Amino acid sequence: MPRETIQLACRVESLSILRADGTLDEQLEPHIPDADLKRLYRAMLLARRFDERCLHLQRQGRIGTYAPSRGQEATPLGVAYVLRDDDWLVPSYREFAAHFWRGWPLERALAYWGGHELGCAVPEGINDLPVAVPIASQCQHAMGIAWGCKLRRDGTVCACFVGDGGTSQGDFHEALNFAAVYNVPLIMVVQNNHWAISLPRHRQTASQTLAQKALAYGIDGLQIDGNDLLAVVAATREAVEKARSGGGPTLIEAVTYRLAMHTTADDPRRYRSDAEVAEWEARDPLPRFRDYLRRRKLLDEGAERLLEDEIRQELDRAVQWYEQYRHDPYELFKHMYAEMTPELERQLAELRAYLEPQGAERPAAAAAPVVTRVL
Amino acid sequence: MAQLTMVKALNLALAEAMREDPNVLVLGEDVGRDEGVFRVTEGLLKEFGEERVIDTPLAEAAIVGAAVGLCFRGFRPVCEIQFEGFSFPAFHQIEGHVRRFRNRTRGRYTCPLVIRMPYGGGIRAIEHHSDAPEATYAHLAGLKVVLPSGPRSARALLRAAIFSPDPVIFFEPKALYRAFREEVPEQPETMPLGKGVVAREGRHVTIVTYGSLVRTVLEAAEELYDAHGVDAEVLDLLSVAPLDGDLINASVRKTGRAVVVHEAPRHCGVGAEIIARIVEDSLLYLEAPLRRVTGFDTIIPYFANEKVYIPDSGRVVQAVLETARF
Known about the structure:
The complex is a heterodimer. Chain A is built from 13 helices and eight strands. Chain A is an alpha/beta fold. Chain A has two domains: 13-324, Thiamin diphosphate (ThDP)-binding fold, Pyr/PP domains (Rossmann fold), CATH 3.40.50; 330-366. In chain A, the strands form two sheets. A six-stranded parallel beta sheet of chain A has the order 1-7-8-4-3-2, sandwiched between helices. In chain A, strands 5-6 form a two-stranded antiparallel ribbon. Chain B contains eleven helices and 14 strands. Chain A binds chain B through residues 88, 117-118, 120-122, 124, 129-130, 134, 137, 139-149, 151-152, 158, 170-171, 174-175, 177-178, 181, 331-332, 335-338, 341-343, and chain B through 51, 56-57, 59, 61-62, 64-75, 89, 92-93, 96-97, 102-110, 141-142, 144, 164-166, 194, 242-243, 245-246.
């Protein structure tokens, strides 16, 4: 057999609609009702102010290590906007904008960064998974959920988030491979924020784009401007419609940038230049979307001030609730198994006897637990 | 009903559960058309179809990770990992997610799945096909770890595992797959997870074991009685997590002596935990030092030499005699 070229149906598109300089491709502009545009702007602003508040709280020692999402709000928000309530959303750890859109109380997110499992206790009725800390292992769960969506024949789909670093993991590959073989309704969104802590995107993979990895699995891949909410909505709509109608998975590479540190334990000046950050500040999704709304006369300075006040009060209330939240110290035993095992019963009794000694003066650290009602 | 091998008994448990509950799915490598490398899934594809008996691509982490997601959509997946040595590519899914979801979501998301895998040595297999990693999994809070010792317990425990609300690691001693037949009742039966049984009553010494070595120990017990007049009580734990501490301590308090027997390496093995439980709860009842007869703290030898590694009845007899005569 001579050496011949195999003709592959290979194509990777990139999509940008509302550019950083404010110019708009009206041909591609997705239809989003005015009321939704306003709600989306509020949600993006809320995510930004939440992020800023968390950084302050962390610096004051009032929450633990925090992973900021500044600059990456448009992608999770745009994806969440397109999903139906009964669809599924599997995040990594910079997607609180999506969680808030889907109805999570701010208090749960604060509880998460404050070190409480409550922050992973997804409220009933919301089909989200909680934050996933290990990199890319959540892709497998999303693939399994999407597979379940297909088997249930209820028309639901699953969207999953992973970072550019995550694409190097076996789980990312295995999940997309399975998803493609079983043709399941999965939308895999790679938030390419250019930095996996200190490792730049070009050292993560020699591929020209992350979107092209889709081609190896036999599925569609698309690169989009992840800081352009309109592009996110347009691309997600396409992928979701395809998935819902049995067309299988899509890989979306959302090109964005982590404007802040990896976590509050990280100092990004060790590995990247201020000039690079400044370049991406100019492509920030928030002012870009705000200007779009202003041009469409959906937002003016008065309305913005009002929004800022509302959001500040909302955050104040959430922080106030979080700071008085007390959990049951014995809860660590409660959810290990459906029924507590005899050995755990014994260990629980051991801890209780230590924290609440009978007939002895109660040590201050073991004051009777005051448990707060869960929001 | 019928006299079944362990392979047939496991197959029966799967088929019964799948008939009863449409949410039970079987997924793994070669479980469909090939009916599993040991044929445990024989006939299932034909009866239940491709949506419920799923031949997967070759990736253990994806088999287990997909099962996690399927659980969240209300299914009860039964994963087959082809050999215990290949469970480690899925280890981060088991350790990092399967065992944690219930706790971290305060019960909102749970993983009622089973991960079945052939276990242990004794079938002259190639490398990575003969290990006994139960302690590795028993150490992971949130999992239940089960090891049947024969066809009847295999069928009853697999049923219990499938309908358990908690994730279960189900080790199938591969040396027992076709080693013997046992009467299996007509009606489906279950045995509680976390409870052991007395496999042989005795007065002089307690031998605690499980899985593949229960038969070896019972043989040793007969020899001890017939040739040496030592009446050994044999405990078959069936589960190593949770561990049936009450059963162990009740027996040791009666006999005052105990020997623990398992195939897995000694260091930090399940035997260490069993002995700790005895020392904590029954020290003052003891008449002799506690002993372990186990695999050595080496890699299990390649098959030409595996027999010296796996405890045989001679090693058990010797240790029990030393304990009984102390």
